[in-house]
Amino acid sequence: MFNPPTELLPTATNQSGTRTAAVPSVGGRTGIARILLSRDTVMIYALVAFVIYAALFIPRFASPVSTGFLLLDVIPALLIALPMTLVIITGEIDLSVASIAGLTSALMGVLWGAGLDIGPVLIISLIAGVLAGAFNGLLVAVLGLPSLAVTIGTLALFRGLALVVIGDNAVANFPPALTSFFTSKIGGTGIPTVMIGVILVAIIFGVVLHLTPFGRGLFALGYSKEAAIFVGIKVVRAKFWLYVASGSVSALAGIYWTLRYSSARSDNASGLELTVIAAVLLGGVSIFGGKGAIPGAIAGVLLIGTINFTLRLGRISDVVLIIVTGTLLIASVVAPSIFEGVTKWLHARRHRRTLPQASASGATRATASGVQERK
Amino acid sequence: MEFIRYTKTRRTRRLLAFAAAAASVALVASGCASGGDAGTGGGAEGDLSITFIPKQLNNPYTDVVLGGGEDGATAAGFAATEVVGPLEASASSQVSFINAETQAGTSVIVIAANDPDAVGPALEEARAAGAKIVAFDSDTNPKYRDVFISQVIAKDVALIQIELLAEQIGGSGEIAILSATANATNQNEWIKFIEEELASNPEYAEISLVAKVYGDDDDTKSFQEAQGLLQAYPSLKGIISPTTVGIAATARYLSTSNYKGTVALTGLGLPNEMRPFVKDGTVTAFALWDPAQLGYVAAFAGKALADGTITGTEGDTFDAGDLGEREVGADGIVIVGPPTTFNADNIDDYDF
Amino acid sequence: MTLDTSPPATSETTTRRANGFAAVLRLREIPVTLALIALVTLTYMANPLFLSQQGVKDLLLNATIVIILSVGQAMVIVTRNVDLSIGSILGIVAFSTGTLFVTFPGIPIVLVFLAGMALGALLGSINGCLVTVAKVPSLVITLGTLYIYRGLNNAWAGGTQYFAGDRPDSFGALSVDTIAGFPVITLIAIVVVIIVAIFMASTRPGRDLYAIGSDPEAAKLFGIPVTRRVLLAFLSNGVLAGLAGVLYASRFNSVGATTGTGLEFDIIAAAVVGGVAIFGGSGTVIGAAIGALLLTTITSALTAIRVDKFWQQAIVGLLILAAIVIDRIARIRTAKKLRLSEARDV
Prior knowledge:
The complex is a heterotrimer. Chain A is mostly helical. Chain A has helices at 9-15, 32-37, 39-57, 64-89, 97-113, 118-142, 147-166, 176-183, 195-211, 213-223, 225-231, 235-260, 272-282, 294-313, 318-351, 365-374. Chain B has a six-stranded parallel sheet with strand order 2-1-3-4-5-13, sandwiched between helices. A four-stranded parallel sheet of chain B has the order 7-6-8-9, sandwiched between helices. The relative contact order of chain B is 0.13.
């Protein structure tokens, strides 16, 4: 009775790869200039600048070993940031992601402990994530309940179920071949093998969001529900499947977490939701919805991950990391909001006569509604 | 809204765009290039370095252990001593610290594991890079470390606690255990010995262990677990809390409730933290080893491993500075010393 | 916060809403109160010790700090904002309380309370200023300050912890001594609830907070000083978090770098369970207080009837979801009622 937006995927394969690189080589749809000066691209510059700085000035940073450890650390946040970006762009939020990862991990432990083969264990755990996401989707999309409150509820519920499932136990004896695969690197590059999968997931999300009508519809949805309906988006369906995607990817993160640390516990990945959201917002995704990009979100995650890693290399306490993360987050939203206010004001003055509707593009909701009224 | 383009300034922006694109490409290239001249020390430097990774930073017990560790490292002749660690004690949080130490080419990593297995792969990588691994306070899975510095013989710790409690409750009644996290290696071992002793020793035949609860080494949680225990088991006569956070929180609850003086409490505590509760009669006696010695011996064991004087096999001996010679026992375990019992008479003699 | 849907009631003017208000409020608090009564009764039947003198005292003490925090959070949520940083504020104030007693032995306890509340006010108003002046959603700002305040607490405290023994006995006695069966700090919490409830229900600024939460644009058009009122909500929340921090130091054994970590969602959950709508505009602080009492009582009740403690968190999660659904039903009914009364008036 329901068609997931799979018809969009073939186009995805046609153009895959153009988006994931920091350098968009194809101008095409949106225009290279706009991309390179947008809020999320600025994050990529910040990331690049910081990486250069670290490579030059932090001893031992510039090595494949860094790449490996750094990426292994950020993969869970990186994965979850992808669906989170889409969810936030539609103006919703999902706080239950880390709990879903924890639940998946707990389930893996129990099933493996019960003697199931690793194949079924992985499949059942993944299905659990899909179902958890569908439950969120049911409450938020179908019943129309506020996602912030709903996912605080499921944050407690799923973590609670993880506790119910595995209790205080930890399961550690996963097949060594599998766990060592999860920490293995591609040749001498230092890049973890699992990054191939992560990049694939990133490409899928990037393409769906940026190169398909469905993705454009998500922006419209976050911008205004009426606009979305006008564009032809089925609001309920779109949101429902986003939550399913969020649950599934969180489950993948949970599986990764379990096998990377070869430890299935109920408290795995706890607190990760705030890290992911902080990184995504830092990456230029607007909490109001309607604005954001996958490359920016990825840059946000990598920036926090890299700062974290360099601090550890320099043996500087996590205290500094906490303060830096918080300050960056606030600065990243306060500065553009002031900057945007000024630019928009100037822009609106300049374009009022020639392009009356232009100001609506990329504006925050509150001010945009004012502009629209004027038109 | 996506269909509306800025048209006027496009040309200038394109210039900027190219510049930015070029910069990005350059970065990617330089990132790859710099990958070549990787320089991890892997213990190749002449000076030995030691890094302590406690379960969590900012914990009073840990601070005492680390204080001893730093003294020991200086005395043993390490050129550099570092302390790094997570702010919250979770299973996987120590891994990235181990990784950073691997990369730094640290010669000796001393770790108190939050989870015996989660730190395993990271420690293996560290060893492959040439680091020696000393576990202390809470053991890792033995295959991941060279030696484990144990406070005391695990069984002794268990026995002294049950002995103290049996004495305080008059040898019969219901008791409970309030532990740290359910996965804590050291606590679980002691609890196992306590259970075995209760089952096998006829002196304890009339004592029954009715509950084990976990306060996660969190003050608030331990406090509420203690409170829940007394409500759920009205005839409870005593509590053993083999963790410094748990015993202090439980003591705080008892001293502020009607149960003060009627429910006995013992376990492992820091004298400075427990002093008021011993003085006000909530707690009669509790035990602990000298935590500073733990760090101190760990540092010397690390030095001996790095120098190659010991390999961590049973029967190896090494010099532990002021504490004399220590021997590696079965399973690579080194025992620091006997536990001390603290009570109203002697508690003022200790300051840690 | 996400602001994409306007609740059905917001199309009405603020004055007209007042009629429907009382009905909604009554409705909102009934489910949580019934749940609380049912829970206490059932647990008592299973384990009479649950309502022993000590049992009741423990229940009240457990709820006290959560109640104060939930009341403050309710004030913020009513304005369609949220404050995630309260756990960090509580931690910093609790540690500063310990520091004060150690640095200035013999300092009057009242002064410590005032200092703690002042520090809370400062931190709360930083949140408020950032939210109102920069016009950035409170979820983002307070997520940032959650990290920053916690970082500052860690940097300040380091490994230092202050224990009950470092504080005067009379201070600790606040959470031990009882007056008519109520612990002193619980009485403080009750006074706080009453004062804030009166403020919210019957003063102009209090009513303004509801109007702002219902429809910020309309509130502005109506002449309500939105910035000042929202700032006031954040500041009050900070003061209450500060008060909670001081009381925390009185009740628990140690205060240090990690005190109060991870409280934020529990507190928001308590407010939501108590009928405070997450999109603002409705709910009462009394509801929030009952919500807090319910959530803390569940934990004790499950322990008292020896239910596997692993179920606790899952049950709390289900309760939150139930509260949201009930809220939605209440909203639909109110909207219907308002439409009817509208039709009559026309």
